[in-house]
């Protein structure tokens, strides 16, 4: 089974190495998409993303751009750097911006033209105060219909909004890295369908084995498992 | 896949010392006993120690009755934990004694949901009774083990299971209870930080670390992933998943 992990992180404190890749491969994760966490700790995004690009190129990962619309000259940066990345990841709660932020929306116009997916990170550490709402992401997805959005870092406390809002938009997917409720994968498949779910582990912050078990032991078809572990994210990141 | 093979080695022997029967409709989580059994079978969990979600969120009497029914329906698969709200004073103590006579094996305390500190004199009366009756107290702990350490000091003969290892402050939690031999750390919680199990084993020794799931809030995959993915010996994994909790079954 091919497994593409859309939520693997690099940071200055914990640099992702070839050993990490070997470990993930050993437990069954065949493809890795890497994002920087340094942008939530104040490092300029161009520097943080350059490191991700270097690592990705060196050991064969899919690079994701961490994007903070609050920095200066972000649109210029986006224009010059977007071509090197397969997706954008934003951390609204950590970088303290709203999903209605004007600069974010200007960036999304550009991103929409380039058809690059956007991952919206709700939480990184479990102690994080989560300010982003699934409903807000759905509103953004309605406004930018050509962008595929991924809600990452959601957990069972978001279930009521997932049931209520996610079904109403087609261009929003859910990453299971932080999603933990009992029979949660079955619940999501039932509510939104297997084509709207992507696989993530939040490695090296969380134990990646938990996400693997969530899918491997879910009472869903093999085809649905393949959608979740690989097909959806591969399509999203343009790897197919 | 390797992780599946690893889990299969423990099939049918895993003991979950922390779960709940019932639902929590705030989050659209459903955990009726029939579903829990199905999930336990799927992952190879032999026994789950359970309290009722209804006991914690609404009426402790209704939750305890629910657990009793589940124990009768699935003999040997569920071990009851009596949940009592300390504010109900004498009635809570009576409920505790009643269900222990009926085969429940411990008491569940949830200071947050019951909205009363563990060190309040009303809570202490419950713990004193548990110590007198020689049954373990399973205590929800999300404060880095502060309250657990205080009561462990007061009741050295009371076996305490610190649920969630102290929560977000798990690092502090295990350090804080290290000196109390009567305290065990249970690993379930949303907190799946890598290193959490390794830390518990390093500080407390694997004999004092227990496997728990916390259904229906968490799928067993969460805690199983923590133990199976931890960089600890196979002997330690075996002890945490299958052996350490046997002593609680024999209460």
Helix-strand blueprint:
The complex is a heterodimer of chains A (240) and B (251).
Chain A: E1 4-10, H1 18-27, E2 31-36, H2 45-59, E3 62-67, H3 74-81, E4 87-90, H4 102-114, E5 118-121, H5 134-143, E6 149-152, H6 159-165, E7 172-175, H7 184-192, E8 197-198, H8 208-216, H9 222-236
Parallel strand pairs in A: 1-2, 2-3, 3-4, 4-5, 5-6, 6-7, 7-8
Helix pairs in contact in A: 3-4
Chain B: H1 2-8, E1 14-21, H2 33-43, E2 45-52, H3 53-57, H4 60-73, E3 78-83, H5 89-101, E4 106-109, H6 121-132, E5 137-140, H7 146-154, E6 160-163, H8 170-177, E7 183-186, H9 196-204, E8 209-210, H10 220-229, H11 234-243, H12 246-249
Helix pairs in contact in B: 5-6, 8-9
Write up this protein.
The complex is a heterodimer of chains A (240) and B (251). Chain A has helices at 18-27, 45-59, 74-81, 102-114, 134-143, 159-165, 184-192, 208-216, 222-236; strands spanning 4-10, 31-36, 62-67, 87-90, 118-121, 149-152, 172-175, 197-198. Chain A is an alpha/beta fold and 240 residues long. In chain A, helix 2 links the parallel strand 2 and strand 3 (62-67). In chain A, helix 3 (74-81) packs parallel to helix 4 (102-114). Chain A is globular, with a radius of gyration of 16 Å. Chain B is α/β, with parallel strands linked by helices and 251 residues long. Helix content of chain B is 45%, strand content 16%. Chain B has twelve helices and eight strands. Chain B has an eight-stranded parallel beta sheet with strand order 1-2-3-4-5-6-7-8. Chain B is globular, with a radius of gyration of 17 Å. The model of chain B has no long low-confidence stretch (mean pLDDT 96). Chain A binds chain B through residues 1, 26-28, 125-127, 155-157, 159-160, 163, 180-185, 187, 203-214, 216-217, 219, and chain B through 1-4, 7, 26-31, 35, 39, 42-43, 168, 190-194, 215-226, 228-230.
Features:
heterodimer; A: 240 residues; alpha/beta; TIM Barrel; eight-stranded parallel beta sheet; 40% helix; 15% strand; B: 251 residues; 12 helices; 8 strands; globular
């Amino acid at each position: 089974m091919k497994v593409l992990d859309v939520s693997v992180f690099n940071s200055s404190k914990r640099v992702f190495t070839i050993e990490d890749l070997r470990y993930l491969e050993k437990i069954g994760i065949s493809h890795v998409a890497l994002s920087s966490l340094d942008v939530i700790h104040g490092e300029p995004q161009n520097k943080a993303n350059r490191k991700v690009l270097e690592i990705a190129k060196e050991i064969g990962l899919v690079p994701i751009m961490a994007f903070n619309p609050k920095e200066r000259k972000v649109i210029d940066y986006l224009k010059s750097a977007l071509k090197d990345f397969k997706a954008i990841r934003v951390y609204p709660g950590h970088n303290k911006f709203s999903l209605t932020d004007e600069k974010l929306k200007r960036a999304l116009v550009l991103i929409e033209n380039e058809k690059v997916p956007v991952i919206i990170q709700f939480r990184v550490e479990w102690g994080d105060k989560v300010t982003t709402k699934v409903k807000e992401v759905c509103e953004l997805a309605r406004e930018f219909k050509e962008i595929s959005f991924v809600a990452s870092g959601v957990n069972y406390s978001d279930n009521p909004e997932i049931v209520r809002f996610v079904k109403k938009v087609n261009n929003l997917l859910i990453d299971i890295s932080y999603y933990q409720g009992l029979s949660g994968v079955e619940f999501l498949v039932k509510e939104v369908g297997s084509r709207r779910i992507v696989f993530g582990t939040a490695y090296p912050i969380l134990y990646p084995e938990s996400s693997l078990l969530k899918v491997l032991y879910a009472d869903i078809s093999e085809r649905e498992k393949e959608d979740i572990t690989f097909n959806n994210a591969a399509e999203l990141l343009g790897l197919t | 896949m390797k992780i599946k093979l690893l889990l299969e080695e423990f099939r049918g022997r895993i003991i979950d010392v922390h779960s709940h029967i019932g639902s929590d409709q705030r989050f659209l989580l459903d955990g009726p006993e029939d579903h829990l059994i199905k999930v336990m079978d799927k992952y190879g969990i032999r026994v789950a120690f359970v309290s009722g979600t209804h006991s914690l969120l609404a009426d402790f009497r209704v939750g305890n009755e629910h657990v009793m029914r589940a124990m009768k329906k699935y003999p040997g698969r569920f071990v009851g934990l009596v949940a009592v709200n300390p504010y109900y004073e004498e009635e809570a103590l009576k409920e505790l004694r009643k269900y222990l006579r009926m085969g429940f094996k411990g008491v569940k305390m949830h200071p947050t949901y019951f909205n009363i500190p563990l060190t309040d004199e009303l809570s202490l009366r419950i713990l004193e009774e548990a110590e007198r009756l020689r049954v373990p107290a399973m205590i929800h702990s999300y404060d880095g083990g502060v309250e657990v350490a205080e009561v462990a000091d007061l009741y050295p003969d009371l076996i305490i299971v610190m649920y969630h290892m102290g929560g977000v402050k798990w690092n502090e939690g295990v350090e804080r209870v290290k000196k109390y031999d009567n305290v065990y750390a249970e690993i379930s919680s949303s907190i799946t930080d890598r290193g959490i199990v390794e830390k518990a084993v390093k500080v407390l020794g694997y004999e004092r670390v227990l496997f728990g799931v916390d259904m229906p809030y968490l799928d067993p995959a969460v805690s199983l992933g923590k133990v199976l993915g931890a960089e600890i010996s196979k002997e330690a994994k075996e002890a945490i998943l299958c052996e350490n909790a046997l002593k609680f079954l024999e209460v």
